[in-house]
Structure formats: structure tokens, C-alpha cells
Amino acid sequence: MPARLKTLGHLRLLDESGEDIVFPEKALLILSYLTARGLPDIPRADAAALFWDDANPAAAYASLRQTVSRVQKRQRDLSRSFLIFTDSTIALGPERIESDLDAIGENAPLALLAERLTEDFLKNIRPDTQALTKWIALQRASHMALLRNALLEGSRQAPGASRQVRSAAALRLLEANPDDDEVRSVLTGHIVTPRPALMTVQPSACLPVQDHVEIAPARQNPPRIVLLPPATNHASRAAAGFSEALIEDVTIGLCALRSISIIAPHTATQIAGQTDRAATYERHKISYILETRLRGEGAGHTLFAQLIFFGSDEVIWAERFPLSSDGLLRSRQMIAHRIAGAIATGIEDNELVRSGYEGDANAYRNFLFGQGQLKNLDLRDIRRARKSFRDALQLQASFAPALSGLARSYFLEWLVTARGDEALLHQAEIHAQDAIRADERLPSGYRELGVVKLYSRQFDESAHYLDRAEALSPHYANVIASYADTLVQASRPDEGLKKIEHAIDLNPLPPDEYFWTAASAAYSLGRYEEALAYISQMKDKDPVHRLSAACWAMLGDMKKARLFVRRTYDINPNFDFNAWMAVVPIKEEWHRQHYREGLKKAGFK
Fold it and tell me: What SUPFAM superfamilies has UniProt attached to this entry (predicted)?
């Protein structure tokens, strides 16, 4: 079997067994150019200008010579010859190479095009020249035009391709060009008058993805939504198939809306596999994320769906759908219709406040950096986050989300340093009030003010502001988590534990403070092993060494309790036990004495 060149998506050269052949990237680009254009060779001068530098021929030739030397050495090591170099040309070598573009042409069937063209040509390549940029853009536009023609011609004649193939092709085309009504009609069944011009591709779809991109103001383009593949949690095969088909139905239903842009399912699957999803959402300018989880429960299943606004990490809609094993197919259309309707309504309502997040692209980016840094309960990260929020406010002084983030940073510093510094709480309160004045529709300002009131021992005021935040956003996991903390400190740990468990259900990969609140609630209920289990799920356990020590002491393991006492003083040599107990916001005396008992047993003095 010959080697295989993959140009759609990641540029790779594979051997006969499907393993990657390590080869210089510029050489792979030359192979791509020759195979895509059906050329046997390219003049060296053209290659230098196209792939290296079209403005500085001397520098381009120098870079070309270096690459030729590396390629020749690599080919000797491989005992293979993919390219041949002469004084004037670069030609295809005697080694036969198959390409994923070989069967792509005007007469290619829709099924093949839909399968092959799920990703952009040379997706991750960053061209060094304008000529290469334009050529790649033309290749991508040509591929989309082939796919579009095959889809529309097949739909106008006898529809030979399956519904899944037509849907996949239409969704891929709408991802590239959301304004294509003819393609949309394939999904919706609404007949439209064909436009005389061929499909045009959005400029953004033609350019390579960069690591850092400017986030466009919200009103210039429709908001983008990604429907992530469902998490099935060991559900039955039939239920897993149901959930996947459901997402397809919801996606098709949403494509009827001109007010939003849908990420194609193939791209959504790739996004789901990314380790840093937040960076991926920002890079692809995604504003909304739909997550679904299917869980087996006895003879039936439960489907949980939630819509998240990325700008604030806020769940703006969530619902559970009980399913019976024999009713999956019957309930699919009904659930898909309800989810699509809820998404449309939720996004429409949320767009009223979205401009506050994306009024300034750089301010929004700084805010997102700060949000990411606040997920770590580390003093250095907290202060870095504060700087990011201040940078955002330098660009947009009344940016309410950044004001809320600033308030959060001061509170978290107060919490982590455990010095009872009232000045930090005072700063948090000021910025929370500023956030509310800047935009009273956002729940984050009320949340931060409620947290400050809690740690100022104003329990009723804290509950009032958190009630307000929850009313504004009843599925906002961060608000629910803060409300849980208030209930725990207000000596209602049983209610607090239920609420924090609900927050974790809404946000299955939560920040450490969720587990800290859950551990505090479990300790207050005398469930010490459960408290330690929550602590074990924290990425950074340093801030909860005091609670760990108290849990182990109450379980009678004094060796481990002493270990966490020592770790507490190693991190904070100035920790004052009595001063800390004086500022811990616990409402009832029995609750305070229970916490004090564990800490005293552990060895704090």
C-alpha cells in the first residue's frame, strides 16, 4: 500500500500501517500543493515565494535550501523518496502517495463528500505568505461549493443520499455560511427561491484558526452555539443511540433559526475532546454550550440538559426529562422540540445582556482570563485574576462582570489568607455594589454582595441578596453554590448540602470552592468521612488543611490530624487560631463549638 497524505483537518503523512511519518511541515505543504493541483512539479522560485516569503526572495531561497537539506536527510533515514529536488524544480518522487482529495471532484457522490469534508483543508496551518493564504482559502471555498452543489442537486432530484448524510452536509455548510437559505431549506423543508450566485464562504471560514483571536462584538454576528455530544454514563446502547439522535434532531431544529449560528456536529465532537475547553470556546467564538447527560435509573433513564452562557459560565436553562425504556423513540421528537424551543428562548432573553460582555473585545478577553485564574484557590492566581479584571475595567469602566470578578478576588483573598482582614471584605463589598449599579440584571453582583454579607455575619442580608441572584438566574451553579455556603454558615448544613449537591450536578467539573462548601456541610452534620471525600476531589487542598485536620481528629486519627495542622502552619506561619475562630461566620453557638472542638482536638491552639 502507498503512503497516504491527509490534508483535510490536521496535515499528516501516514505509512502503510496508518502510523505518522515524521516529515518537515513545509515538505508536506509542497506535497499538498502538488497533489491538490495535479501537478508533477513546481519551480523552485515559485515554491520559495509561495511557502516562505513573497517579499524577500533572498530570505525565501535561504529557507528553501535549509528545508531541502532536512527533507533529503529525512528521506535517506526513511529509505523513501516522496520529493525529488533539482536545481530548478521540486517534483513528486517515485513513491506513490494517496491523498484524501483524490476522489473529491464534481462527480463525487454526496455521501463521500459529506464524509470527507467534515474539516477544513489544512485546518491548522498558519500560512507565511498572502499567496498561500489565498490558495488555501480558494481550496476551502471550492470544497464547500462541491458539497453544496451535490447537496442541492440531489435534493432537487431524487434524494439518493440518506437523511443523515443530507443533514450532515447541510450542517457543515451552514457552519461555514449561516446565511445560506437554500441549504437551510434542506433541513427545514421550507422551499426558497434559489439564488443565482454560487455559495460564498465567510472570510473567517477561509482563514486558519489562530491561537489568539479578537472576539467580535456581539451584534456584528449571530451568537454561536455548540451542542456537545451527550454523556451517557454507562447507559444502555439503545439509550446512548437515542441521545445521539436527539442531539441531531435539536441541531436540525435550531438550524431553522437565522438568529444563531450552529457549530457542526463533527466540530462539536472534536471540541468535546479538548482538555482546555474554555480556550477552545474562546478560540471558536462560541457563546453558548448545550450539555446533555443520560443516566440509567432502574428500568428507565433520565436525560439532563443544560444551556450555558460562556461569558459568565452561567446555566441559563436546565431541565430533566424522565424516560422509560419503551418510550425512548416516542419521546424523542417531543424532547427535541422542547429543548430547541428552550434554547431559542433562553438565548433570545440572554442576548439582552450579552452586549455587556462583548462590548469591547479586549475587555471581554481580560475578563475571561480573570475568570479562568479565579478557579484556582491560590493567592498568586487570585491576584493575577484581579489584575486581569482591572485591565478589563481600564478598557470598559462600567463592565459589570469585571466589577463582580474584582469583588470575588478580594473575598477569595480574605478567605485564603485567613487573617480576618476587614479591608479585603470592604473592597469586595464596594465592587459588588458597583457591579449592581452597572447592570442590575446580572446575578453576579448580587451573588458577591450576598457572600460579603455572609462573612460579615449579616446572615439575613446575605440570604436576601442570594435570593435575588437565584431569581435572576435559577440555574446559575455559582450562585447556587454561594447560597449553599450561606446556608451552611447559617447553621442549616442539611439544606446547604442539598443545595451544593445541586450546584455540582449543574456544574460537574466545579471549582474547588464547591467541594469546600460540601465538605464543610458534611463536617457540620458529623459525616467526617464524607467531608474528606469531598476534600479529596479538590485540585488544591492547601486552603482546607484546617478542615481536614478537624475531620481526622473527630475520626480519632491523631497522626493525620497533626499532619494537617503542621501543613497549615507551613503555608501560613502567622495563622492565629483564636483570631480565626473570632471571624468565622457561624450563626449558632452549637455549630461554632462543633468546629472548635475538631480544631482543638487536632492540635490548634
Answer: TPR-like
